[in-house]
Amino acid sequence: MKRQFAVVFLMLGAACAVRGQDTTSEAAATGRNVAAGYSPAPAAGATLYQPDTSAAVSFAPNFTGNFAANSVTDFATNFGPVPIFASPSENASPEAAPSPAPDPKFIYGGRDDFRWQLALGVDWIRFRSSIFNASAVGVSSSVTYFTNEWFGVEGNINTGFAPEIFQNEHVKLLTFGAGPKVAWRERKWEPWLHAILGGAHEQPQTAGNSRTAFAVEVGGGADYRFNPRLSGRLEGDWVRTNFFSQQQNNFVLMGGVVFHF
Q1: Strand intervals (E) in 147-204
Q2: What integer pLDDT is reported at residue 108 of this predicted model?
Q3: What angle is formed at CA 133 by the lines to CA 213 and CA 171, rounded to 5 degrees?
């Protein structure tokens, strides 16, 4: 009986010893660096792939000789020139190219000038008729659009106010119209001529006569350029009206400024 117990204890002890050795081996394997067999990270610029050029490569029947895998010269000799791809800048879309700078809107001293002119000033109107004469002072304004370097279309308005006549009646004059304008546009001076067709209005009312009449204005002037946007103006015009069933020859003088835009 004792012998049987001894055999059992001996077998259990052997089993425990074997199990302990397996545990120790597993622990050692767990703590071991499994990547120790691999080389460290390659240095910057190192070639990672080194093709084996010792072996010959055979291609189609029309190819003779050996071809090294990394030989561009052999490839060009047997198959023609190596294609060269254009750089991204050569294949860029035309839309991506920068657009050219726009032409300047104003060249000071040349004929490429602003197209619009706005003139404001003070005028003096000398009105002469068989019923009354008057010297009126007022405000003048005009707008001109140039279609090219020398030809424009103008619209203007002239007003004048004079002292009392005819028992506390004030003289008030107005002329208005539109027509062509021709200018010689130079660096500083800009002489010009115009012809305006339109109408005229006068006050006071006279018995049996209309206060509105047809008017023709012909004359010219000169502008002096202070800077590209501003000029000074002097102007003189002959104005013909037909008030009171008669013809009147009147004169207008004007001085002011011109805005270019």
Answers
A1: 151-165, 169-183, 189-203
A2: 45
A3: 70
Contact 171, 203 (CB under 8 A): yes
Q: Are 123 and 160 in contact (CB under 8 A)?
A: yes
DSSP 109: T
Amino acid at 208: G
Number of neighbouring beta carbons within 10 Å of residue 9: 10
Domain 116-260, CATH class in plain words: mainly beta
pLDDT tens-digit series, residues 126-164: 999 988 899 999 999 999 999 998 999 999 999 999 987
Alpha-carbon span 226 to 93, nearest angstrom: 47
Please report the pLDDT score of residue 20 as a whole number.
56
pTM: 0.58
Least Cα distance to 249 among 219, 216, 221 occurs for 216
- Cα angle 177, 182, 184 (rounded to 5 degrees) comes to 145
Buried b vs exposed e over 27-61: b needs ≥16 C-beta within 10 Å? Answer: eeeeeeeeeeeeeeeeeeeeeeeeeeeeeeeeeee
Residue 142 φ/ψ, nearest 5 degrees: -155, 155
Task: Name the token pair of 70.
Answer: 């990394």
Token digits for 230?
């501003």
Q: Could you tell me how many helices (H) and strands (E) the chain has, helices first?
A: 2, 8
222 contacts: CB under 8 Å, gap ≥ 6: 189, 190, 191, 192, 233, 234
Residue 109 and residue 228: Cα distance in Å, rounded?
A: 9
